Every structure is written in structure tokens, then in C-alpha cells.
């Protein structure tokens, strides 16, 4: 069982920045992908960014150029640097780990709240 713990959420003004962290209980190298999802009230959970085992990355169109996903394998931690934040970025952000060969959505953290004020 993989445990994921997110941190770094909070309240920030539009145009500001936050860095989210996701600490995993095991090696993130054992995962096919690590990612960040978000869910706002009344909205579906959406994939924000993902980094694959080989290092390739995916970003949702809404965050391209503003968000950066990265990882520190030695610390078993994945980060999401969020710059130029907008009120529409307000959501509960979840860390996700997808094992190799998984037929499910993998493992999830508890979520960390990001609120961007106008």
C-alpha cells in the first residue's frame, strides 16, 4: 500500500505562486506515473499534470506555461510549481500514483486546498 501526503496548499492572491509537494511512502521510481489532479466544487476531477517514469510530462491546456511538475527521486517527492495563479485554479488538489500494470486509477493522497482570490 502506497501512502501519499500532499502539502503546500493555501490562500494566495491572483498572480501569485504556490508549490505543492507530494511525499510518497515508497520509491516513486516504482510508479509508471505520478500526477496532480484537481477538483473544484461542481466540477469533475481533472488531470492537471503528470510525469511518467521515463521523464516525459503532460499538462492540461489550462495550466500550460504556468505550472511545472517535477520530482526528487531521492526524496520520493513530486512537486507542482504553480505560477501566475488565477481564481479558476481554486480547487482541491490531489496527488496520484499510477503503478506499472495498473488497471485502476492508482493511489491517491488526501488532497490539499488551493484558493486563489481575485
Protein described:
With 118 residues, the protein is mostly beta strands. Helix content is 0%, strand content 53%. The protein has strands spanning 4-7, 10-13, 18-24, 31-39, 46-52, 57-59, 67-72, 77-82, 91-99, 107-108, 112-117. Strands 2, 4, 5, 6, 9, 10 and 11 form a seven-stranded mixed beta sheet that branches. It has a four-stranded antiparallel beta sheet with strand order 1-3-8-7, with no helix packed on it.
Keywords for this entry:
mainly beta, 11 strands, 4-stranded antiparallel β-sheet, 118 residues
Estimate the strand proportion: over 45%
Termini separation: 40 Å
Name the helicity range: under 10%
Secondary-structure element pattern, one letter each: EEEEEEEEEEE
* Quaternary organisation: single chain
Shape: globular
**Unreliable spans:** none
Largest sheet: 7 strands, mixed
Q: Specify Rg, calculated over alpha carbons.
A: 13 Å
Q: Tally of extended strands? A: 11
Summarize the SSE layout with pairings.
Elements: E1 4-7, E2 10-13, E3 18-24, E4 31-39, E5 46-52, E6 57-59, E7 67-72, E8 77-82, E9 91-99, E10 107-108, E11 112-117
Parallel strand pairs: 2-11
Antiparallel strand pairs: 1-3, 3-8, 4-5, 4-9, 5-6, 7-8, 9-10, 9-11
Brief write-up:
The chain is an all-beta fold.
Amino acid at each position: 500500500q502506497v501512502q501519499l501526503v500532499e502539502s503546500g496548499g493555501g490562500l494566495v492572491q491572483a498572480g501569485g505562486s504556490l508549490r505543492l509537494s507530494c511525499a510518497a511512502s515508497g520509491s516513486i521510481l516504482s510508479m509508471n506515473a505520478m500526477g496532480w489532479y484537481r477538483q473544484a466544487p461542481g466540477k469533475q476531477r481533472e488531470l492537471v499534470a503528470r510525469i511518467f517514469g521515463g521523464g516525459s510530462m503532460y499538462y492540461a491546456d489550462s495550466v500550460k506555461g504556468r505550472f511545472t511538475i517535477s520530482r526528487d527521486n531521492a526524496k520520493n517527492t513530486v512537486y507542482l510549481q504553480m505560477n501566475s495563479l488565477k481564481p479558476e485554479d481554486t480547487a482541491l488538489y490531489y496527488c496520484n500514483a499510477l503503478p506499472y500494470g495498473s488497471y485502476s486509477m492508482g493511489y491517491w493522497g488526501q488532497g490539499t486546498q488551493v484558493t486563489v482570490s481575485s
